[in-house]
Amino acid sequence: MITIEHLHHTYDLDRPRPVPALRDVSVHIDKGEYVVIIGRNGSGKSTLAKHLNALLLPTQGDVWIEGMNTKDLQHLATLRHTVGMVFQVPDNQLVATVVEEDIAFGPENMGVPRGEIEERVDAALDSVDMIPYRRRPPHMLSAGQKQRVAIAGVMAMRPSCLVLDEATAMLDPRGRRDVLDTVLRLHHQGVTIVAITHFMCEAVEGHRVIVMDEGTIAMDGTPREVFDQPTRLRQLGLGVPPVTELAQRLHRRQPSLHSPLLTVQELVEELCDLPIPEGLRT
Amino acid sequence: MKPALQVEDLRHTYLAGTPFEAVSLQGVNMEVAEGEIVSIIGPTGSGKSTLIQHFNALIRPQAGRVFVLGQDLGDTNLDVKWLRRHVGMIFQSPEQQLFEQYVGDDIAFGPRNFGLDRQEIRRRVQKAMHAVGLDFEGFKDRLTFTLSGGEMRKVAMAGVLALEPRILVLDEPTCGLDPATSSNLLSKILEIRDNDGTTIVLVSHDMESVVRLSDRIYVIVDGQTVLEGTPREVFPEAELLRSHGLEAPQVTQVMCGLRNRGVEVPVDLLSVCEAEEEICRCFGFADTQEQ
């Protein structure tokens, strides 16, 4: 799906002080993967994301999306429908005054026939669970709902990959949960997901976590592998979710408890499987 | 202790009398003592922003009363300039408000506007930069647009702190920051209160920040206070919070999860260390921690 080979990106290349943002990044992402990218501010996460649909082009190296090189301008239109992007602030991404028209904007521009546009809009609205809101003005929706409309707008172009750059940062806990559930559903439908986040408890939802630091890939593994190294993560300006830290501490004192555990549910289950002392049971 | 901030039955309706009329606040009551850190949490659209915009008279009370540092904000003779000097507001993504070329000038803008003398301005800029953890000599002559996101946010905060406000209102201060930067910023906020006795009002969706800073919490839903108390009182109300689209910190969720499965453990725990001790005690795990 995505192959990145020796990618370098430098901002302000022609200025006196060029800023290297990516240094020799090579990574391969398979079709249908759910990859979460974490890393401290300025580590190059967003720069990397912008290379995935040619919003930025390599200073050096290559990015291949389904066999298309992003430098090859004849593929630009196809590339942009193949990889859809969702950013932090949905308001910047909504263009129409009615939800369904906003979602139709992408396919209309692609020259999709009328009948099929309707079909796509229905499917996109359904995939983010927003059908009841189709005739509403987007600015009257909550932030989480707007973000789901933004995702639907992207999904109507039938991309095979969805890139989310801190798409949950501005949302309240319910809005965040709704967006994450939507992303999970799209993932189950076979869409490749690349999500950038600062919330460690969101990073555990993916199948693979890539940790960026100073423009390079510092760690790459399953959430369990990555979050099993709290010291290393802390050196990289990150951390582990509180529940994982709690499980790690408990594991030190009761080795039969597994570690790392990534969710509240997992830890509660593990503890309940232990023999519970008399008097603690109600 | 006398309250720094008092809100009595505050109501606010946007675009009243038009077809777009929207009720935002419907009877909020709150009280914040001097030197206290109080968090306001609530789902999007619950009226949190409308409420805090009253605190420096960006919005005047339509019905009900707001007192800040003893001043009635409904008073038509209110000295707004005085109020804004004492109530510092740091909105979401304040780094977007930087406009000067140099860090030092940006931070000095407020005190200069209030006509302070050079030496006093320098002292305040130095102190404010120290408070947010920016080295004065190292940063004062840096160009603002070359800073990282976290540094810009600290500069913006220092600009507000340089006014030496008695009340500081922070809207989502850690949003978009990485874990290390946000943890560092939270410690700085605690220090500001501990060193200067500044009263702090925090609005946040990040319960881990709320739990680390707050003395007390107000939960606002649909423009009304639905719950108020210390973090230990508020967060064990997991069901109520969830029904309003909020959630407790993960540690409290673990304890509530155990309780729901019939294990008799205390639920009013907030930090990882407390939970570790309590679970080890209840389950009879090894007593001494081996490092």
What's the helix and strand layout?
The complex is a heterodimer of chains A (282) and B (291).
Chain A: E1 2-11, E2 19-29, E3 34-39, H1 45-51, E4 60-65, E5 68-69, H2 76-82, E6 83-86, H3 99-110, H4 114-127, H5 143-155, E7 161-165, H6 173-188, E8 192-196, H7 200-203, E9 208-213, E10 216-221, H8 223-227, H9 230-235, H10 242-253, H11 264-273
Parallel strand pairs in A: 3-8, 3-9, 6-7, 7-8
Antiparallel strand pairs in A: 1-2, 1-4, 4-5, 9-10
Helix pairs in contact in A: 3-4, 3-5, 4-5, 5-6
Chain B: E1 3-14, E2 22-33, E3 37-41, H1 48-53, E4 63-68, E5 71-72, H2 80-86, E6 87-90, H3 103-113, H4 118-132, H5 136-139, H6 149-161, E7 167-171, H7 179-196, E8 199-203, H8 207-213, E9 216-221, E10 224-229, H9 231-234, H10 238-243, H11 250-260, H12 272-283
Parallel strand pairs in B: 3-8, 3-9, 6-7, 7-8
Antiparallel strand pairs in B: 1-2, 1-4, 4-5, 9-10
- Assembly form of the protein: heterodimer
Could you state the CATH homologous superfamily of chain B?
Answer: P-loop containing nucleotide triphosphate hydrolases
Number of strands of chain A: 10
For the biggest β-sheet of chain A, the strand order reads 6-7-8-3-9-10
How large a portion of the residues of chain B is in β-strands, by DSSP E? 15-25%
Pick out the low-confidence regions of chain A. Answer: none
What can be said about the biggest beta sheet of chain A?
6 strands, mixed
Remind me, CATH topology of chain B?
A: Rossmann fold
Strand content of chain A: 15-25%
The most extensive contact between chains is:
A-B, 48 and 49 residues
CATH class of the largest domain in chain A: Alpha Beta
Query: Could you give me the name of the CATH homologous superfamily of the largest domain in chain A?
Result: P-loop containing nucleotide triphosphate hydrolases
Q: Give the number of domains of chain B.
A: 1
Write the CATH architecture name of chain B: 3-Layer(aba) Sandwich
Q: Determine the N-to-C terminus distance of chain B.
A: 44 Å
- The number of helical elements of chain A comes to 11
Helix content of chain A: 25-40%
